[in-house]
Backbone:
């Protein structure tokens, strides 16, 4: 039995090595990778990413695919969970690029994954767009890595200028999480910008805490006693609710200002009336939105039951950026390497892209120049447009 | 009783295959895959060569399971099955011949053989290479924790902290000396020198981790049992917040851009060195003393075992290897941040240790490999993955409370010997 089978296997192997090696895939489908934190620390971010991407896919499917040159090419999403871990984000990125042959990768969202995954994407010369990562390292010296949001070095000064011109304050306090890179970076940029405007020592209290702390009374007492006129806290919405409520209990009556991490529908649910009247800078204002932004919000809300966070909006814009770039290439060759390079070049050339989070222009780097929006939380708990600040 | 008997006779055919025979078979399989894997995959209806034995596409496209199974059977199963069985006689002669050489030479031959298999297997695509590298690092990490939690019988929670120390130390070394960065200035040494100095970076990382272990060991070894767990857990948090607050290493933003030195041969060599030295350590006198301390510290003391020194050496030794694993980890990912070395990392490595088996070198390898592969295979399940893996762990704990393969060290002579006896125990 053994003697009969062994040559059989050999023959089979030889036949197969001469078998037609599959049709050379002349861009049969466009694969787009979504590297999202579906489990782990920030599953809500992953969910927003997934929903926005699926909505986009629906649109594309309805249109019969992306029109590139004269052909309509169907699109496939490769959605993978990066567990909100740097290690897994790198594994997922490598898998998508070398195994699944994605043309573009969207994500990861948080900088702690986007920085290492960006390195992978750049090594394999695959365009990547991180919708949400604000760390400058993500795109720095990486021609293949892009992002759809503005950076912390832009947002810090925007807020400092806004507070100065709006309230004419000169003394500010900062409360931030020292163990999380986003709040820490933004707190530093804000401090720099503020001290440039008002001189050294104008940040009268610079207090920190550690992730998952829930009692801020000692820091807040110091801030109240410091004589600060405004409190800046670039925290995530769940912490903001605690900070604002505790500040008010301790007798703080002055304005509190935040950053784009405030921009979640959950904020008002958790914070209630305490947050009314406060300001934050973000990518878009949900209440009073017009045009495409409103259409996106309404559709998302009808479909999934809540107002989309900025992550979902930025993911939506990233998907459309990718689509625009693919369309602008004027035709796919079917050679993945060449196509990836073409898409990258098309992405880098995008000017005045009308996204739902504002107009974006790429000029030389992977960072778009786009406007920030200052949002006021109204007396009804809605995020209303207050002011737009452009670079 | 018919099926078991047929199965036993079926299996008995391979009971006389020595390790070298299996290695030959594996080499044949991976070479075959390398040569005809692509067309073969296309022929059985798969879009590409399945990266991890089809585990990775199983849940994404369940319809392809039979195809993937067929592929694995054709590429791995049949060639390995036939080659090993056909080569029983020459392989046994070769194994006997090799065993007559000095044991270091024999081991060297086997290790080179194993590396060649890994290399050919991983060359098919880079995803495989990455998973393999991270799995090898997980083996080092798990094995070093097993020295404390298994052989020493204490419950230490500071292992990710040691890994973090090693990772940061090695990263600062390589970034500071060989890379132009904003934080450490320009490169001091030519990058070409880098790969040769890399071992120094890793060793420094290991030594720093061992120094950290000393800080835990001094106060905690005066106590026993739960106290070490608490002190070591505190140490983990201290390390994490220390790094978060050190502006010199960029705090929570992490360090990125480490040079690409941790390639497959490097990681493989360090893993072999780790397994070799830990296996020697636990089978040596001090390893036996360690087991005596675990079983009854007072009795061990009465039998002239210097319990304090024994525990100290083992603890520092384990931390050293965790530090090395950390340095490699940072250079494979080329990024390191303090958030990676938290409670979740601790839970994962503990799962690997207890899943694989306490007090066991084989067990650590099995635990690290199976949890890593499960993690990759179950990724598409998203949140349910975190239900299935813990459930498996619970089942293992119920049916095999000490883990899958507990109390088993590597005995190389037994491993390499020819299998000539008719029905010898494998």
Residues:
């Amino acid at each position: 039995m053994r003697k009969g089978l062994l040559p059989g296997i050999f023959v089979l192997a030889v036949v197969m090595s001469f078998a037609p090696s599959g049709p050379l895939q002349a861009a049969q489908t466009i694969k787009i990778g979504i590297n999202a934190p579906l489990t782990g620390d920030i599953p809500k971010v992953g969910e927003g990413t997934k929903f926005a991407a699926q909505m986009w896919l629906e649109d594309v499917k309805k249109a019969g695919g992306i029109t590139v040159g004269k052909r309509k090419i169907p699109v496939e999403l490769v959605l993978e969970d990066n567990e909100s871990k740097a290690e897994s984000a790198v594994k997922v990125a490598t898998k998508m690029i070398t195994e699944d042959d994605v043309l573009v990768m969207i994500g990861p969202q948080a900088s702690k994954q986007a920085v290492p995954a960006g390195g992978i994407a750049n090594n394999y010369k695959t365009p990547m767009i991180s919708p949400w990562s604000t760390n400058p390292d993500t795109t720095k010296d990486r021609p293949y890595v892009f992002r759809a949001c503005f950076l912390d070095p832009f947002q810090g000064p925007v807020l400092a200028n806004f507070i100065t011109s709006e309230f004419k304050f000169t003394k500010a306090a900062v409360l931030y999480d020292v163990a999380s890179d986003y709040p820490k970076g933004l707190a530093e940029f804000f401090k720099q910008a503020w001290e440039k405007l008002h001189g050294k020592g104008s940040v009268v209290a610079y207090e920190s805490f550690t992730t998952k702390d829930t009692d801020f009374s000692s820091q807040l007492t110091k801030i109240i006693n410091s004589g600060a006129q405004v409190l800046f806290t670039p925290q995530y919405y769940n912490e903001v609710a605690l900070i604002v409520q505790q500040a008010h209990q301790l007798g703080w009556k002055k304005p509190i200002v935040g950053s784009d991490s405030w921009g979640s529908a959950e904020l008002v649910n958790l914070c209630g009336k305490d947050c009314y009247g406060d300001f934050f800078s973000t990518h878009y204002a949900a209440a009073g939105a017009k045009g495409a932004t409103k259409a996106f919000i309404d559709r998302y809300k009808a479909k999934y039951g809540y107002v989309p966070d900025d992550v979902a909006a930025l993911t939506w814009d990233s998907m459309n950026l990718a689509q625009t770039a693919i369309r602008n290439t004027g035709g796919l060759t079917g050679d993945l390497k060449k196509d990836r390079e073409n898409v990258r070049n098309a992405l880098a050339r995008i000017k005045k892209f009308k996204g739902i989070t504002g107009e974006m222009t790429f000029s030389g780097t992977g960072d778009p120049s786009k406007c920030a929006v200052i949002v006021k939380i109204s007396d009804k708990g809605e995020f209303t447009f207050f002011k737009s600040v452009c670079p | 009783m018919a099926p078991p008997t047929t199965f036993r006779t079926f299996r008995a055919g391979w009971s006389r295959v020595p390790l070298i025979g299996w290695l030959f078979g594996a080499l044949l399989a991976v070479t075959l895959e390398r040569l005809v894997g692509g067309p073969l995959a296309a022929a059985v209806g798969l879009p590409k060569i399945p990266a991890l034995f089809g585990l990775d596409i199983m849940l994404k496209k369940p319809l392809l399971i039979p195809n993937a199974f067929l592929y694995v059977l054709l590429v791995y199963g049949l060639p390995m099955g036939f080659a090993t069985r056909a080569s029983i006689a020459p392989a046994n002669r070769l194994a006997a011949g090799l065993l007559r050489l000095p044991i270091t030479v024999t081991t060297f031959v086997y290790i080179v053989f194993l590396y060649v298999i890994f290399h050919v297997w991983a060359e098919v695509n880079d995803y495989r290479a990455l998973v393999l590298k991270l799995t090898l690092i997980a083996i080092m990490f798990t094995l070093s924790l097993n020295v404390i939690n298994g052989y020493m019988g204490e419950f230490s929670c500071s292992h990710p902290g040691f890994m973090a120390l090693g990772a940061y130390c090695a990263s600062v070394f390589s970034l500071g000396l060989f890379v132009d960065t904003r934080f450490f200035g320009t490169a001091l040494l030519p990058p070409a020198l880098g790969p040769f100095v890399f071992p120094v970076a890793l060793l420094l990382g290991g030594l720093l981790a061992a120094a950290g272990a000393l800080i835990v060991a001094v106060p905690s070894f005066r106590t026993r049992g739960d106290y070490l767990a608490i002190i070591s857990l505190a140490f983990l948090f201290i390390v994490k917040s220390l790094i978060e607050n050190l502006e010199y290493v960029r705090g929570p933003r992490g360090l990125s851009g480490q040079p690409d030195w941790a390639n497959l041969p490097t990681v493989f060599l360090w893993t072999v060195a780790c397994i070799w030295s830990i296996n020697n350590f636990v089978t040596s006198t001090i390893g036996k003393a360690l087991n005596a301390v675990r079983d009854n510290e007072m009795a061990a003391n009465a039998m002239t075992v210097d319990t304090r020194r024994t525990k100290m050496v083992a603890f520092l030794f384990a931390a050293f290897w965790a530090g090395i694993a950390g340095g490699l980890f940072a250079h494979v990912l080329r990024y390191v941040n303090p958030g990676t070395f938290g409670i979740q990392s601790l839970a994962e490595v503990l799962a690997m240790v207890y899943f694989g088996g306490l007090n066991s070198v084989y067990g650590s390898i099995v635990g690290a490999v199976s949890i890593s592969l499960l993690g990759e295979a179950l990724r598409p399940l998203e949140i349910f993955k975190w239900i299935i893996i813990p459930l498996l762990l619970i089942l293992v704990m119920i049916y095999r409370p000490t883990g899958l393969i507990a109390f088993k060290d590597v005995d190389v002579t037994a491993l390499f010997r020819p299998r000539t006896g008719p029905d010898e125990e494998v």
User: Anything to note?
Assistant: The radius of gyration of chain B is 23 Å. Residues 126-152 of chain B form the longest helix (27 residues).
